[in-house]
Amino acid sequence: MGKNTAYLLAYREIKQSKEEFNEYLDEMKELAKSVDIKITEVFVQTGMRNDPKTYFHSGKIKEISAYASEEKPEYIIAAEELSPLQYKNLIEEFPFEVVDRSELIFFIFKANAKTNLGKYKVELAQLQYEITRMTGKGVSMSRLGAGIGTRGLGEQKKELDKRYINTRIKSLKEKIEKDKKSIKQRRKNRINSNLPIVTLVGYTNVGKTSLLNAMLKQEKGYVKNKYFATLEPKCKKLFIDQDKFALVNDSVGFISKLPEKLFEAFLSTIEEISFSDLLIIVLSPHEKEAKRQLEIIDDTLEKLESNDKKKIIIQNKCDLIENCDYPFVSAKTHKNLDTLKIKIKEALWKEADAENKNQ
Ligand SMILES: Nc1nc2c(ncn2[C@@H]2O[C@H](COP(=O)(O)OP(=O)(O)OP(=O)(O)O)[C@@H](O)[C@H]2O)c(=O)[nH]1
Ligand SMILES: [Mg+2]
């Protein structure tokens, strides 16, 4: 065992179906894989609700602890966000690094952010998260990602105190604020261009960037079989039909239980949704997954007050499956992409065209 290995601790509430829970576990494994961590053992405890002090009950913790002392995984990953108290108690129980779901997502964002601005946003969100959980002297650097995703910085032992963190938060906010102006300007340019704005929305890894690439017949957007490949989405001008063009935005993928601070940090990119004339909701080809994704998308659109926008719902990766519920496409084989363009055209111009005819 050792480097890059982890135990996953997942609490299953009785009301959660086995199937739903297993999907959630698979997702946790994929999240870990995104930062090259292999889950070697999964420990599950079932009950009404997790232990408010230690997440798992103390007997089970002792059992896992004894087991881990032989195998020595590098990390203990909790499948949910831990409360400060649960976190504090678990780090006392385990001589390994304890990471919760939110932190794992921070690490992925951190590893995938390419521009300085993207990195600042993740760091700010993570510091704001960690500062609420500080109990002792400070936060160890390793918790801030010197471990997972950005190894070898040799700062694992260094502790950061509250004062340093607050100063850093202030300076990060200033840096991000500066960029807000240029985001606003770009948005204004887009709106002034008078072209309709379309945004691709969907769960992480469903193929949004691949679809945009396929529609543009290019391979410029970054596509990867890992979560949160796109953190700084691009906007492209897409030919629809004859003299008709639209601006198409890619977007940061959704996920269940996205840490609130990351949602806030990436709001400026996700916000493009609220400036769109049309949303293309991209779902996985598997029926159950698609249903679950749609619920999360609906919730997020509610938060953005954008649930009443015009929408086209599609399932991508239809090359992998025989039947899909929604109109299906494949970014890989380009199946039904022409039909999708017709749908976009109808959604954006049908009413205007009809009005023109009546005049
Ligand atoms: N079989 C198949 N694979 C696809 C299709 N579209 C995308 N993929 C694969 O799915 C993976 C994710 O694709 P992306 O385009 O990066 O997905 P995304 O939705 O932009 O993901 P994030 O940016 O992480 O939110 C990649 O490995 C793609 O090659 C498709 O139509 N069929
Ligand atoms: Mg993408």
Automatic annotation (TrEMBL):
Kindly list the positions annotated as binding Mg(2+): T209, T230
At the top level, the lineage of the source is Bacteria
Origin species, per record, is Muiribacterium halophilum
Task: Report the protein name in the record.
Answer: GTPase HflX
Q: Where is the G domain?
A: 198-317
Domain (GTP-binding protein middle) spans 113-190
A GO molecular function term, named singly, is: metal ion binding
Could you tell me which PANTHER family the record lists for this protein?
A: GTP-BINDING PROTEIN 6-RELATED, GTP-BINDING PROTEIN HFLX
Listed Pfam families: GTP-bdg_M, GTP-bdg_N, MMR_HSR1
Key word Metal-binding present: yes
Q: Which InterPro entries match?
A: GTP-bd, GTP-bd_M, GTPase_HflX, GTPase_HflX_N, GTPase_HflX_N_sf, P-loop_NTPase
Per UniProt, GTP binds at: 202-209, 250-253, 316-319, 330-332
Domain GTPase HflX N-terminal residues, every copy: 23-109
Q: Which cofactor does it need?
A: Mg(2+)
Q: Which UniProt keywords apply?
A: GTP-binding, Magnesium, Metal-binding, Nucleotide-binding
NCBIfam families named in the record: GTP_HflX
